[in-house]
Specification:
By secondary structure, the chain is an all-alpha fold. Helices cover 76% and strands 0% of the residues.
Length: 217
């Protein structure tokens, strides 16, 4: 054995000497984490704030059903993107969530259009403590998903921490406000478009700021 070969072998031994086997990250387990977070969020919202809506009321409130379904759909797509980004692969496309986000952007636009004729009265009515309460409640109920997805990503290797943080916030905000919507007393497009969407934006900003530093190696 030559001296250079001996040094190479020694260097390799030093590099791998402290390595420990780790359990490979599983997309299935990530989806289970996201699904469990959604279930617990809804259960906590019902137990803490109560359940206001029933099937008869839902049939009379199509705006509420469409809006809440949109939040839930975007939350599911965003959480799926988070899970897939934790296990990067060549050629993967994670842009699907953008189309769902554009769809959700219709809500504040619809709120603006609906209030054009009497914007002063409608905006004052929407800008009540109930609206701020929805933003706060949606954010708080989304924290479980926020924490679960962040911990999950720390086990993986997301290549774009900023995007991962943004999607973590969007998913948690959508799940949180969708759960709280079960007890929200307002079903009009102005309230939902301003305040329920506001909860998602607040969580998205939180995720964009807080999560990336936690994911960098």
């Amino acid at each position: 054995m030559t001296m250079s070969q001996y040094k190479s072998d020694t260097l390799i031994d030093e590099l791998v000497g402290d390595l420990q086997p780790v359990r490979p990250i599983s997309v299935t387990r990530g989806l289970i984490v996201a699904g469990a977070s959604l279930f617990i969020t809804f259960l906590a919202a019902i137990l803490i704030t109560g359940l206001r809506w029933n099937l008869a009321m839902l049939a009379e409130s199509p705006v509420y059903v469409i809006a809440t379904g949109s939040f839930l759909l975007l939350g599911l797509i965003a959480s799926l993107s988070v899970v897939l980004q934790s296990k990067p692969r060549v050629g993967a496309d994670h842009s699907g969530w953008k189309w769902a986000a554009l769809m959700l952007a219709i809500l504040p636009l619809a709120a603006l259009v609906s209030s054009l004729d009497s914007w002063r009265t409608d905006f004052v009515a929407a800008s009540s403590l109930d609206g701020l309460g929805c933003v706060m409640a949606g954010t708080l109920f989304g924290l479980l998903t926020f924490a679960a997805l962040t911990m999950w990503q720390r086990k993986g290797a997301p290549t774009n921490p900023e995007r991962a943080g943004l999607l973590t916030g969007i998913a948690s905000g959508c799940f949180g406000i969708a759960g709280f919507s079960l007890s929200c007393a307002h079903a009009d497009i102005i309230h939902i478009g301003i305040w329920h969407t506001g909860a998602v934006l607040a969580c998205a900003l939180l995720g964009r700021v807080v999560v990336p530093p936690l994911l960098r190696w």
